[in-house]
Design a protein that fits this description.
Layout (H helix, E strand, L loop, with lengths): L13 E8 L2 H11 L5 E8 L17 E9 L3 H20 L7 E4 L3 E4 L2 E12 L5 E9 L15 H4 L6 H22 L1 H10 L7 E5 L4 E9 L5 E5 L2 E5 L3 E4 L2
Parallel strand pairs: 1-2
Antiparallel strand pairs: 2-3, 3-7, 4-5, 5-6, 6-7, 8-9, 8-12, 9-10, 10-11
The protein binds biotin (BTN).
Biotin (BTN) binds next to α1, β3, β6 and β7.
């Protein structure tokens, strides 16, 4: 990336930084309650109530990147779901600025892995204002200086993978540019392009996986993403389309 870009936001975006906050996603909702805030990035050095997918906590001690982007979307719910893959690719592009790109993979639905270990997580939440406008809040956590002990998955952080020490601020500005590019590409070229880029870097494509949902678990071969981004699982010839869940790889 051009070094002149590193400390400024791409055009059309704003940034509000906090030292400590409950959750940048919650702050995004508070901002939206005050009016249209599309294009606003919110960052915080720490979160006291960081939230992960499926109601889990996201441990948010200082050193890592915690941020949320507010993005206005039309009334097509499918488009909102597509943003999950747009954001994943932007996070992957960001990580690839630091780490050898062959090692950086996308794990369905929106995690990024380095050598099989989780480096980031994305939590998307929707919001509709009183006029009926829809927004997505794209909450992103990237492990920069530390990672949690193994909980559901093995994890890593950027500074464990590289020789230099980077700060969450370095990572944030790169992310804003990667996100702007990916959102622009998606708006211009549609979801097919995003879907095929994501598949190019997908982890465990063609392999046996299990997918855990709150009350059931499915096992099969991960064969594709459908046009909506659902994971297609080949279960002995029957293709199941899965819209949410946690993926585990065969040992
Ligand atoms: C996951 O469970 O993998 C998703 C984690 C998302 C964490 C980020 S950190 C910034 C934003 N604010 C939150 O409370 N959560 C998201």
């Amino acid at each position: 990336m051009d070094k002149t870009d590193l400390n400024k936001l791409p055009d059309g975006f704003d940034h509000q930084a906090f030292l400590s906050i409950d959750s940048t996603n919650k702050e995004a909702i508070r901002k939206l309650e005050q009016g249209d805030a599309s294009g606003l990035w919110i960052t915080s050095s720490e979160q006291t109530l960081g939230r992960g997918r499926s109601g889990r906590d996201w441990v948010s001690k200082p050193g890592n990147l915690y941020c949320s982007l507010i993005q206005k979307v039309g009334d097509d719910i499918q488009k909102s779901a597509q943003l999950s893959f747009v954001a994943s690719l932007a996070v992957r592009d960001t990580i690839c600025e630091f780490v050898e790109s062959d090692l950086v993979k996308c794990k369905w639905p929106n995690d990024i892995l380095i050598s099989g270990k989780k480096i980031s997580g994305i939590l998307l939440e929707s919001y509709q204002d009183k006029q009926g406008w829809n927004y997505m809040i794209i909450g992103i956590g990237i492990n920069v200086a530390h990672h949690p002990d193994k909980m559901l998955y093995d994890a890593t952080h950027i500074n464990e993978q590289v020789e230099h020490i980077f700060s969450h601020v370095d990572v944030f500005f790169i992310l804003t540019h990667k996100m702007s590019k990916r959102i622009g590409g998606w708006q211009k070229n549609g979801f097919d392009h995003i879907r095929s880029c994501w598949l190019d870097h997908a982890s465990a494509l063609g392999e046996r996986i299990s997918v855990r949902l709150p009350n059931e678990q499915f096992e099969g071969r991960f064969v594709d993403l459908d046009a909506s981004g659902a994971l297609m699982l080949d279960m002995d010839g029957e293709i199941k389309h899965i819209h949410s869940g946690d993926v585990f790889f065969a040992e």
